[in-house]
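re the bet — no i am not wrong, look at it urself. input seq straight from the record:
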Amino acid sequence: MTIAISNLSFDGPFSDPAQLQARSGVYAILGRGTGNWNVVDVGESANIQDRVSNHDRKPQWKRCGHATLGVAGYYCDAATRMTVEKRLRDQYKPSCGDR
């Protein structure tokens, strides 16, 4: 399954980060009540599966008030993932993970 985030095709959303591939890329933490998914947080890593599974902001994601949380991944190289992460942060201004 895939989800479009800012015209990019992300794998997911998944309820379990273990469903992400252990690859370089950008992850999006998504939340929803009964409607559409909303971007809660965005980040990048050389291994997005490991990063999301062990993320220090995980408790914050759960406190954002969404009934359901999911994670989606966009796989790319290091240079691309930094550019994509910045673009998504600028566009969505995620409620968690202010830098």
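see?? The first strand starts at residue 2 and ends at 5. told u. also The chain has three helices and five strands. so pay up
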